């Protein structure tokens, strides 16, 4: 029996990973995922475990090479988006990527910002990074993504204050602002969380290096 | 917090680097490298897949190891140590032997007295 669940995670890393693992604990194994849906097959409880890796800051060819490597390591992999596909164009700029940012083009890295990895539970912890500086870099790129999401929200709300920019009535403009504020908060919460995680790891790296 | 980093001119490799180099004296793929390290250190060193990926790519960039065989092969990608890599590994062995000699003289000497 398969089961499809509708979900969206604003905290796409930790919360999504926790949720997939709790599903696996109850005997559901991920079969495929869509933009906002997850399809599960029934399996034995506690048979599989999941880890999520953010690859949206890598060029498509590099993300693909990494995925192939992980498949070779014996993990089952899925790709997943982090945002709704709201843009009409086929090109999306990813300001959160390193340096000048990468342009992601369909059908490449577009909507494949995350890798979901599955392995059979073997009693060993499912750790992708066993080095503090690697862990730090992984969280830093996630943090950077949230910073950009929040900046975009600030930009959007700034636009609504430009006079005569839209034909919306004043009341509707306030509704729009409320919606933007609502989503900003949903991005700010994980942003704050990853900021503090990065700071924690920085402290740790001082003692271990 | 006072912490001590390795001396710049000391030339020590990180343990991860040295172990990866040793794992590819015969051609080996990612999973094999991971297994080799875990087995040979009796589980003392277990590398995460992401960390190992970074280590492999860094060593390929430095030309200490190189992909072996056909890259477009459907088989798992294998890596093998290069001449330069062997040279680095030999230097590291020499350094470790020196440190070992020094440590064993002093530590044993201390025990006798």
UniProtKB/TrEMBL annotation, chain A:
What UniProt keywords are attached to this protein's entry?
Membrane, Transmembrane, Transmembrane helix
Checking Pfam families in the record gives:
DUF2812
Q: Report the transmembrane regions from the record.
A: 145-162, 174-196
Which InterPro entries does the entry link to?
Answer: DUF2812
Q: What is this protein called?
A: DUF2812 domain-containing protein
Automatic annotation (TrEMBL), chain B:
Q: Which SUPFAM superfamilies match?
A: Winged helix' DNA-binding domain (SSF46785)
Residues covered by the Transcription regulator PadR N-terminal domain: 21-90
Record-linked Gene3D superfamilies? Winged helix-like DNA-binding domain superfamily/Winged helix DNA-binding domain
Q: What Pfam families does its record include?
A: PadR
PANTHER family, alphabetized: PADR-FAMILY TRANSCRIPTIONAL REGULATOR
This chain belongs to the protein called Transcriptional regulator PadR-like family protein
| Native species | Paenibacillus aquistagni
* Source lineage: Bacteria, Bacillati, Bacillota, Bacilli, Bacillales
């Amino acid at each position: 029996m398969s089961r499809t669940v509708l979900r969206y995670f604003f905290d796409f890393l930790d919360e999504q990973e926790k949720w997939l693992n709790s599903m696996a604990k109850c005997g559901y194994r991920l079969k495929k995922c869509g933009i906002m849906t997850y399809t599960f097959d029934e399996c034995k409880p506690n048979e599989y475990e999941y880890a999520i890796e953010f690859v949206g800051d890598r060029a498509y060819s590099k993300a693909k090479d990494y995925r192939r490597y992980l498949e070779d390591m014996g993990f089952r992999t899925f790709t997943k988006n982090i945002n709704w596909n709201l843009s009409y164009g086929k090109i999306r700029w990813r300001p959160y990527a390193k340096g000048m940012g990468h342009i992601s083009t369909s059908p490449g890295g577009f909507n494949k910002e995350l890798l979901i990895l599955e392995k059979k539970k073997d009693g060993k912890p499912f750790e992708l990074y066993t080095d503090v500086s690697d862990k730090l870099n992984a969280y830093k790129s996630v943090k950077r993504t949230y910073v950009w999401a929040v900046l975009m929200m600030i930009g959007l709300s700034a636009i609504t204050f430009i006079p005569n920019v839209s034909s919306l009535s004043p009341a509707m403009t306030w509704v729009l602002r409320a919606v933007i504020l609502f989503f900003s908060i949903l991005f700010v919460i994980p942003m704050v969380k990853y900021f503090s995680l990065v700071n924690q790891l920085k402290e740790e790296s001082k003692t271990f290096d | 917090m006072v912490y001590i980093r390795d001396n710049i001119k000391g030339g020590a490799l990180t343990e991860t680097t040295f172990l990866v180099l040793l794992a590819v004296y015969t051609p080996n793929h990612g999973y094999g490298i991971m297994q080799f390290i875990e087995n040979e250190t009796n589980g003392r060193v277990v590398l995460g897949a992401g960390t190992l990926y970074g280590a492999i790519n860094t060593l390929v960039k430095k030309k200490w190891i190189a992909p072996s065989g056909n890259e477009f092969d459907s088989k798992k990608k294998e890596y093998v140590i290069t001449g330069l890599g062997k040279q680095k590994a030999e230097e590291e062995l020499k350094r470790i032997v020196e440190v070992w000699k020094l440590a064993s003289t002093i530590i044993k000497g201390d025990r006798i007295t």
